[in-house]
Amino acid sequence: MIHQLANPTRFLKLARPLTPILFYCGLILVLGACGWGILFSPDEKLLGNTVKFIYIHVPFAWLAIGGWTGIAIASIAQLVWRHPLASVAARAIAPIGAIFAALCIITGSLWAKPTWGTWWVWDGRLTSVLVLFFLYLGYIALANASSEKGQISRVTAVYGVIGAVNIPIINRSVVWWESLHQKASITLTGSSIDSTYLLPLFISVLGFTLIFTAIVFMRMRAALANIKIEARMRRMAEDTHEIGS
Amino acid sequence: MTTENLIFASYIISVILVGGIAFNSYNAMRRAEALLDDLRDNH
Q1: Measured between beta carbons, which residues in chain B are less than 8 angstroms from residue A223?
Q2: Binary contact (B18, A103; C-beta < 8 A)
Q3: Which of the residues A22, A144, A203, B26 has the least number of beta carbons within 10 Å of its own beta carbon?
């Protein structure tokens, strides 16, 4: 199925109707979840009203990590199978992932002040997420410097794969090192978060994921259109040159 | 700064940044696809 979708024409046929659907569904879910969380969920026993940060901080963290996972998968697809869409997808994900990583750090810092009494500590979790943000900036710079016809070079793809080393480090950082950050609340075996907060959190994560995907589709559509424009302009210039000579 | 202010600030910053990149991406997509359609129609 992935091989079939790697065809740009097939992808565009699917992405055109899906982009607005994903975006507006995501927007409705996020507004509903955040509204529910802010207005109706009670203060938590230990965290008090700071629990309201959870509905944005967790989705941003999840998508910052998910974004780089997407870049790594697309980079592998580019390096191994040379899928024409893979590099376009990886390049489209990078700026959105960077924004979400920045938001994860900003909202985390604003949450840290009332709960930990400080805006920032150089512990494993916070530092590894900051490294992720810088990895995104490096990826964007490298992709812009080495782009060919809207696609990215093999060096950028290799960087995308190597950068994925940071993902398990972020995940295990609270286990490996002493941290003010809490341990994982949601694992494969269950959740320590009360259902009062868990349901709006889940809806918020789903909503932000749909918005993230819709924005990736928008950027991929723009990149594919720019590739076609460039090819068409080149053909026109060649035709003009031939007529002239 | 009260906790309420910090929560409010974090939501406002999130709306501005996510809205900003969504708006920017939508405009880039619309402009590129319109230009491509224009090229197809005229040449």
Answers
A1: 32
A2: yes
A3: A144
Question: Chain B residue with minimal CA distance to A30?
Answer: B15
Each residue's pLDDT tens digit, B11-24: 999 999 999 999 99
Nearest to B29 among A208, A211, A222 (CB): A222
Domain range list for chain A:
55-181+196-202+209-238
3 state DSSP class of A168: helix
What percentage of chain A exceeds 90 in pLDDT?
61
Contact B22 A52 (CB under 8 A): no
- pLDDT tens readout for residues A196-229: 888 999 999 999 999 999 999 999 999 999 999 9
ipTM (interface pTM):
0.93
In sequence order, which ranges of chain A are alpha helices (DSSP H)? Answer: 2-5, 8-39, 54-81, 86-116, 124-145, 154-163, 166-176, 195-244
CA dist A65 → A102, A154, A161, A165, A171 (Å): 12, 22, 13, 11, 9
Cβ within 8 Å, pair A222-B17: no
